[in-house]
Amino acid sequence: MDGFAVVDTETTGIDATHRHRIAEVAVVHLDPGGAVTGEWSTLLNPERDLGPQAIHRITAAEARLAPRFADIAGDLVDRLRGRVVVAHNWPFDAMHLRAEFTRIGLDTPFDEVAGLCTMRAASVVMPQSRRSLIACCATAGLPAMRWHTARDDAMAAGALLGHMLATAPGVVQPTAEHLRAAAWAWPELPRGVVAPAQRRPADHIEPHFLARLVERLPRDEEPVVDAYFAVLDDALLDRRISASDADALVGVATRLGLRRDDVLAIHHTYLRALAQVAAAAGERDRSDIDLVARLLGLDPVAAAGDPVHLDPAPTVGGLVLRPGDKVVLTGMMTADRDELTARAAAAGLRVMTAVSRQTRVVAAADPDTMSVKAREARALGVPVVDEAAFVRALDVLAP
């Protein structure tokens, strides 16, 4: 064999048979002695909601632009070929890898005994330790990692294997089943189709979407901006501009032939209208206006100026729900889904299981989610808002 391929996957859920997918995969190469000789990892677009984001911390804004499994299958196979596969809780990773390869019509050797499981081996070498990768590494005296990222978890599992190769080599010697899987005749697949996608650094700040609009754009006539106002109003319902919202705003501005200075002027108009609606309603708290100003790339004092009229007028405070509105929930919410559904129904909302043109909003755990419901909502022009905005609107509506 050529050595070991230590793999780790971050997934949208536990059970691959329930349509859960891989959202990040990593492979770390070790030589037969346990030394690291290479690493590779990428985020994946799972083409569905991301599930337990509080655990893996992958955002939909990152994953939606990542490659799909089919795009990187050749790169992954190239890193598995000829090596004994290793994972901490191998049956879990085997199940998800097998399911992903099956979706693209590829057979694999990945049954439950095909890979070397460091969790199982650690239970023999250090029986006093709990089973988790974090606990096993701590018991072995290995350094802490950025847990629940595929790359660092694979590195940690590799370090744990190296520790056991040095201290109890008989426990982690490859079996006949491991070697059979290592010799699997993988087909030749295209490699380098797309570049791997990495997680954003913790301090990453996304450039404002205005930076993606050109300064000067030739046009034949003054553009009609109602379409931009409509998209802007939907984008600001939850008082944030998600990556999907930003794409939509840039897209409609480009289609309308709007230059960057045009869009800034439109933002000023929108902000002045919002300030006037707030004043007419007796609102003295400027925090909402200041927040919208920042989202639009403006100085909050820009809300002053001549009266303007937008039909419909911007809503102070964002999303407003009314009894009878149809709403749809998607993704793994922070709140219990059944409890949230019951609250919405008690407030007079109609909680639907499918999106239609009559849907008021889709409330999502992550507004950039790639769930089927969110994709249908965007196609129909239905706003997708985050859970916090939906709960705030529900609190106002609830008796």
Automatic annotation (TrEMBL):
<dbReference type="InterPro" id="IPR012337">
    <property type="entry name" value="RNaseH-like_sf"/>
</dbReference>
<feature type="domain" description="Exonuclease">
    <location>
        <begin position="3"/>
        <end position="170"/>
    </location>
</feature>
<keyword id="KW-0540">Nuclease</keyword>
<keyword id="KW-0269">Exonuclease</keyword>
<dbReference type="Pfam" id="PF00533">
    <property type="entry name" value="BRCT"/>
</dbReference>
<keyword id="KW-0378">Hydrolase</keyword>
<dbReference type="InterPro" id="IPR036397">
    <property type="entry name" value="RNaseH_sf"/>
</dbReference>
<dbReference type="Pfam" id="PF00929">
    <property type="entry name" value="RNase_T"/>
</dbReference>
<protein>
    <submittedName>
        <fullName>DNA polymerase-3 subunit epsilon</fullName>
    </submittedName>
</protein>
<dbReference type="InterPro" id="IPR001357">
    <property type="entry name" value="BRCT_dom"/>
</dbReference>
<dbReference type="GO" id="GO:0008408">
    <property type="term" value="F:3'-5' exonuclease activity"/>
</dbReference>
<dbReference type="GO" id="GO:0005829">
    <property type="term" value="C:cytosol"/>
</dbReference>
<dbReference type="GO" id="GO:0003676">
    <property type="term" value="F:nucleic acid binding"/>
</dbReference>
<dbReference type="InterPro" id="IPR036420">
    <property type="entry name" value="BRCT_dom_sf"/>
</dbReference>
<dbReference type="InterPro" id="IPR013520">
    <property type="entry name" value="Ribonucl_H"/>
</dbReference>
